[in-house]
User: What shape does this take?
Amino acid sequence: MQAENVDALTINEAAATTGWSARMLRYIESIGLVEPRRSGSGYRLYGPEELQRLSSLRELLDERGLDLGEVGFALRLKRDAPTREAIDSWLAAQPARPEHVSAADWLRFEQEKHQRLLAAAGERSSGSATPQLEDRSQGQSPTKSAIETTETA
Amino acid sequence: MQAENVDALTINEAAATTGWSARMLRYIESIGLVEPRRSGSGYRLYGPEELQRLSSLRELLDERGLDLGEVGFALRLKRDAPTREAIDSWLAAQPARPEHVSAADWLRFEQEKHQRLLAAAGERSSGSATPQLEDRSQGQSPTKSAIETTETA
DNA sequence: ACAACCTTGACACAGGCATGGTAAGGTCTG
DNA sequence: CAGACCTTACCATGCCTGTGTCAAGGTTGT
Assistant: This one.
């Protein structure tokens, strides 16, 4: 059979044209990033799409500083909607507390949310933790609220 | 000074309520996933938002099987639009090429698309509202996340 | 003043990632 | 058929991650 590999390269040819080593091409396949089809006798056959993918994969790593695991993660994420949403929701809470919300209000809101967490987390540790840095003072310091990270300006 | 830490826990208290060890809280901070503010004397102060974030971070790892690097990657992705687009474009080529399109044609199309992306990425940096993940202000597509974007625009 | 807390820094260690190499054995082609 | 190519499987290496622990030294509340 010599016609099955039209438009496809074997592993060393693919390596030569994409800049990966044959070893790495096998590795990349093993982690699910590229899946070349196989010839009848088991040879890997890299078609244009695989070659394209491998080239841009290389750019991703070289120019963007990613690693294979990260790309693989993105790939998995693309397929796994629940995890994707979980991540999105985590990210949503992450860097930007809305600037226009007063820190105090926002904090109160968040605290409420967190209260449940604390309760759920259990107070089995209530005696041991010696919470001596608790909110014992409610005096309004003339400056601003306890959180100065937000300029609230 | 005892008023600066209103509504905030020190590291061991935070550890007790979030299920992480103090050691890990420092590590998590070192990789940029959570940034507690500091007291005047340098103590870490974990407010409700940090506690919330730490708790859901734990869920992400325990229930979703992620690791810190992956979450950190998602976070970086949220902030780095060019890389996000590069990944999106890579993913676009990934799972589903319409079976009826000749690989050669498809490759040509992808290359073209890639060209545009590169061009666009080059002259970005003056762009205004870099679209954030949760930035569904006028959402027209329901669940759009960092890695989902590329349905053949 | 003293215990209990906090800080940074370091050593350690298991496991995973990214690579290369090598060996034993099929496949293809001149 | 022989040589060049492919396959899988294993061993090795260097670096990174996640985690603990210990040390020397500030901070804090009673």
